Fold this sequence. Notes:
Blueprint: E1 3-10, E2 13-20, E3 23-29, E4 35-43, E5 48-50, E6 58-62, H1 66-71, E7 81-85, E8 90-91, E9 96-98, E10 106-108, E11 110-116, H2 125-128, E12 132-139, E13 142-143, H3 144-150, H4 154-158, E14 163-171, E15 179-184, E16 187-193, H5 201-209, E17 219-221, E18 229-231, E19 236-241, E20 245-252
Parallel strand pairs: 6-17, 8-14, 9-20
Antiparallel strand pairs: 1-2, 1-5, 1-14, 2-3, 3-4, 6-7, 10-13, 10-18, 11-12, 11-17, 12-14, 15-16, 15-19, 19-20
Bound molecules: magnesium ion.
Amino acid sequence: MFTHYIRFSFDGKTHYGQLQGDQVAIIAGDIFSDFELTDQIVPLESVTLLTPCQPRSIVCVGLNYRQHALEMGLQLPSEPVIFLKPQTSLLPHGGNIVYWPMVGRLDYEAELAVVIGKRCHRVSKEEAMRYIFGYTIANDVTARDLQSKDGQWTRAKSFDTFCPLGPSIVTDIDGSNLRLKAILNGQVKQDSTTADLIFNIPQLVSFISHVLTLHPGDVILTGTPSGVGPMQVGDEIRIEIEGLGHLINRVVAP
Ligand code: MG
């Protein structure tokens, strides 16, 4: 059995918890250091979900699915292309993605997110898996028009609400062959598997850790498969990953 950890507010306080069906066992402490399950159990429907962790770095990988690269007529990259999203872009499951006036085309990108468990600096591919706490779901929301207009990606990727993340972190799952889908208003738009990654998870953790030190709770968005496309105000975007559940957000006007 996989373990699902969530972070949530309840009774005016923020907690980590462990999912037990439609109930949550409240955790005392921090899931990234010492913690224990308390005997306090509350119904899932009574809590307000937050993003499952609070990364100090959100590291993203561009162009990391073979099929997507081929579809775009691009050569496979020789090393990962990485960029960052700010903490201010984070959005929990159920939160609203804002279609800001500066944006001309707002795209979804379904991505598997790796959650780091231990401080990680210059680790090898062979060691990398030991630094992973678990996995969650991300939507790398992108202002596609600004991505090409600016020539670099900071503005296009960084607007507030552009990093939906969650709903839970799942541990003890093998991330190397998970089916992932983006479903827009009930229509499947992306449907692939993490087995199609150009750079696999240990390669990404190792590569990124040679650039910046990764800390507990940091996340790596591993790239998106073919089928990206635009969203409109009123749309519901659902990202599903096998074993991890689904991440649902709605697009709203400011
Ligand atoms: Mg992406």
